[in-house]
Specification:
The complex is a heterodimer of chains A (about 190) and B (about 675). By secondary structure, chain A is an alpha/beta fold. In chain A, about 55% of the residues lie in helices and about 15% in strands. The chains are: A alpha/beta (about 190), B mainly beta (about 675).
């Protein structure tokens, strides 16, 4: 067989093999990642959650900022984010539902389409909630119970008032800490 | 310019099309097998092969289908790859279903035999108002299965062999009830003969599956289901039907065991005597430092040693695998259990490539938390000990490596990576030695990877004027610059005396070992001292300016914390529940030996002097310490327990001391630390 023919057959075999490549998924280390798009309200919620988780469980938490919601959801798909904070309006948009969709519909679609679990909602006219990947719930089984404590602590307009009190970005951590301490959550 | 001929391109296309037009059967592997029920062959049944579980659950077109003959035998051709195999059929109008417990199964280029054991299909799930979760029965031959384990998995999981979202033990009546978040779950169960928790399968073990998987769990509803079991490694206890398989065809299990790819080695004790019946586990590595996460999370790559201590773990996926051995699984080790890491390198790992056979992986195992002998405390390095470093001179740089024989460190030691002290070896650190960790973060988790991991013995005895310092090598050091000095199931007789730990994730971390610590300063660490199960004395130490001074997760071991100064940390002492707790194996416990916190000054910590972590419902006493005040309410305010969160246990601090204990903390402390107190 000529050299060229050997090369060509090799190319064919490579082409066939490439079709069989099996991609493996990422693993979770000891750091828990909270993902946010670059918005002040998400930053505050992430700081509150980060402090609560670190203080009460000893787990290491890292807040990762993404350019926008699309980047954030891509990072979730890639297994780089464990927890996000989402509002029901944007969530409806993410799954292509109308803004009038009920929380149950959104929750169900997040579960089936995105493999994400919503915890309890909080807030006033706009409702927010922690959303965890299924893998995160498996690895940190205590998280749902812990993060659901925020639901009572941030009911009605508490969250809006808290957000207003932040003012500048450098005050976020301080506000988060004082809020959790005030509610005796830490 | 070179002229490009069209001929090779034409030939390429011709050969490519030729390959495409070759019937799949000519490139495929022949697979045959048999579908059996308890009563005999399941005839005219359909056997399906899917390349994804999502295909199986949606009932979409399978990759291959075959029909069983009168003996229940089927044949199909499959391209090499990974497949889920199921079978469906009927007897007298009753539907039967089979799922292979080893799914997804790798099909290579050699033909093999794959038997499927079918049970009558389970009833569809029923829903009733109640606590969100799943309940039901586990049956083998229509009888309840005693002492099984039930696991739930996300359907997106590649396989259903690890511990999943949750694994819980089932009672003797085969009934189970477990809480779960709303969602869809694949529910499986295993009956392990002898209740040896999550060890690899053996003859007599059962695998159980719900034929309607995945099961939907709805908010506020209890989902009622049933699981049917079949034997995993043989079929004789399931049916008495005569065999028809030709001897020259290997079964799937035989084929896998003889695949010639994986990790082979031997487990011995320190004297070289083989240890039989040890489980050997290979974990895909996720981080460059030792993580206890592996211990509890399970792995599909495991096996048991034979009478000569030999083992073989078949592996078919590329990766770095941490290898360790244990006699009991399902929780971190407890006192008296046998445990050992592979210590051929500092990451106790093996780099595996598909098709390789990695031989001679020698693991030395020993009892956990061995009782310290008097002679251990005075044990010194042998005359032949290697000496690293000079008393005066250039620092010595050490990278990832294993200390396999007695070694002495002196002078200035710089560490870039992980240093592992092998079982049987003693690392002695001379007074005045400075150990500096370079900040490298290979897994980008914001914690430096520098670590000393001791499975052998460590003796670090400084003096009051020649402290041994473990610190960061960075110009501007900060918390988390390095990971930890970690003891895991170490040899007995470890000593830390007149040392200083700073800028670490955890200065000293102790799991299943005994260590004596005295006159040591812990400052500017995320955690000064972190321990799980340990026989330990911590006396005359100072914990200052850490995020948490002392952090612990179990009450196992004879632990005495006395004459210490614990102040100016965010939290002085914290008792946290183990959160990576996916299993409730019957023997899982957090210990019953209460630690002795006695005669310490625990005061002026920024948030709390003592705190219970989330979900920690256990009580413990810290009576007999000084809290910086004699006002009971002020003391209580600085303690986080049931008084702040009703779900927590209680911390008893009465009777408390009415005045500070004199001469606590490091004796002859460095002036700057004394001045700050």
């Amino acid at each position: 067989m000529g050299v060229n023919m050997k090369k060509i057959i090799s190319l064919c075999i490579v082409a066939l093999l490439l079709g069989m490549v099996d991609l493996s998924s990422a693993c979770v280390g000891r750091t828990l990642h909270i993902g946010i798009s670059n918005a002040a309200n998400e930053r505050l919620l992430a700081e509150i959650a980060s402090l609560l988780i670190t203080e009460r469980t000893g787990s290491t938490v890292q807040i990762d900022v993404y350019k926008d919601s699309t980047e954030l959801y891509n990072a979730i798909k890639q297994g780089n984010v464990n927890v996000i904070f989402e509002n029901t309006l944007r969530a409806a948009e993410v799954i292509g539902k109308s803004k009038d969709s009920t929380f149950d519909q959104i929750k169900s679609d997040y579960r089936t389409k995105l493999n994400l679990n919503w915890l309890e909602l909080f807030g006033g006219s706009i409702k927010y909630g922690p959303v965890l990947t299924a893998e995160t719930v498996a690895i940190y089984p205590v998280l749902p119970k812990l993060l659901n404590k925020l639901s009572k602590a941030l009911e009605n307009d508490t969250y809006t008032k808290l957000l207003k009190s932040v003012g500048s970005a450098d005050k976020t951590k301080k506000v988060a800490k004082e809020f959790l301490k005030g509610k005796k959550l830490i | 310019m070179q002229k490009i001929s069209g001929y090779p391109i034409f030939l390429f296309l011709f050969v490519f099309l030729l390959f495409q037009s070759v019937p799949a059967s000519l490139l495929a592997t022949e697979l045959s097998g048999r579908v059996l029920t308890e009563a005999g062959p399941l005839t005219n049944a359909k056997v399906f092969a899917y390349n994804l579980y999502t295909g199986l659950e949606s009932g979409k077109a399978p990759v291959a289908t075959a029909i069983t003959d009168l003996k229940g035998v089927y044949k199909m051709d499959l391209s090499p790859g990974s497949y889920y195999f199921i079978a469906r059929g009927e007897i007298g109008g009753r539907p039967f279903f089979a799922y292979h417990g080893a799914n997804p199964i790798k099909v290579g280029d050699q033909k093999f035999w794959l038997g499927l054991l079918a049970n009558q299909e389970n009833p569809v799930a029923e829903y009733a108002d109640g606590v969100t979760g799943i309940e039901g029965n586990i049956l083998y031959k229509q009888k309840p299965v005693d002492g099984a384990y039930i696991s739930i998995y996300s359907p997106e999981s590649k396989n259903f062999k690890k511990l999943g979202v949750k694994t819980e033990s089932v009672g003797s009546d085969g009934k189970f009830k477990l809480a779960a978040l709303p969602g869809r779950y694949v529910v499986t169960a295993k009956k392990i003969v002898g209740s040896m928790s999550n060890r690899p399968v053996q003859k007599g073990d059962l695998y159980c599956y719900n034929s309607n998987n995945p099961v939907e769990v709805k908010e506020g509803k209890i989902t009622r289901i049933e699981l049917s079991c079949f034997p995993i490694t043989e079929r004789d206890s399931f049916t008495t039907t005569a065999t028809v398989k030709e001897d020259d065809i290997k079964t799937f299990a035989e084929h896998r065991a003889s695949s010639g790819a994986g990790i082979r080695g031997r487990v011995t004790d320190i004297s070289g005597k083989p240890i039989a019946n040890m489980t050997v586990l290979a974990y895909p590595m996720a981080a460059p430092v030792t993580q206890m996460y592996f211990m509890t999370h399970g792995t599909e790559f495991s096996t048991i040693t034979d009478d000569s201590g030999n083992f073989f773990i078949p592996i078919d996926e590329d990766g770095d695998y941490g290898v360790l051995t244990r006699d009991v699984l399902g929780d971190g080790p407890h006192r008296g259990e046998t445990f050992g890491f592979y210590q051929g390198n500092s990451r106790y790992s093996v780099a595996f490539k598909k098709g390789m056979m990695i031989e001679n992986i020698a693991i030395i195992a020993d009892k956990v938390m061995q009782t310290a002998k008097e002679s251990d405390n005075e044990k010194k390095a042998t005359a032949q000990a290697a000496i690293i470093g000079t008393r005066v001179g250039t620092p010595v740089l050490l990278t990832d490596s294993v200390i396999a024989s007695d070694t002495v460190w002196q002078g200035e030691i710089h560490i870039s990576g992980v240093i592992s002290v092998k079982r049987g070896a003693t690392l002695t650190i001379s007074p005045g030695t400075v150990v500096k960790f370079k900040r490298i973060d290979r897994d980008n988790n914001k914690v430096g990877d520098g670590e000393i991991m001791v499975e052998g013995r460590l003796i670090a005895k400084g003096t009051s004027d020649k402290k041994i310092v473990f610190t960061s090598a960075e110009e501007k050091p900060k918390v988390n610059d390095w990971s930890y000095l970690q003891f895991i199931s170490s040899d007995s007789g470890n000593i830390i005396e007149n040392c200083q730990f700073e800028y670490a994730y955890a200065g000293v971390m102790i799991h299943y070992a005994n260590v004596r610590i005295s006159d040591t300063l812990f400052r500017n660490n995320r955690r000064g001292l972190h321990y799980t199960s340990t026989d330990m004395r911590v006396d005359h130490c100072t914990f200052i300016d850490n995020i948490v001074g002392i952090y612990f997760v179990r009450m196992e071991g004879d632990t005495w914390i006395t004459n210490n100064d614990i102040s100016r940390n965010d939290i002085g002492v914290q008792f946290v529940k183990q959160h990576i707790n996916l299993v409730d194996f019957n023997r899982l416990d957090q210990g019953k030996e209460y630690p002795h916190y006695d005669g310490n000054n625990i005061y002026d910590n920024r948030k709390y002097n003592v705190s219970l972590g989330e979900d920690q419902e256990r009580n413990f006493s810290v009576a007999g310490n000084w809290w910086g005040t004699t006002d009971k309410e002020t003391i209580a305010e600085a303690i986080y327990d049931q008084s702040k969160d009703k779900s927590l246990g209680r911390i008893f601090f009465e009777p408390f001391l009415k005045a500070p204990v004199q001469h606590t903390g490091v004796r002859d402390a460095v002036p700057e630390v004394k001045a700050k107190r």
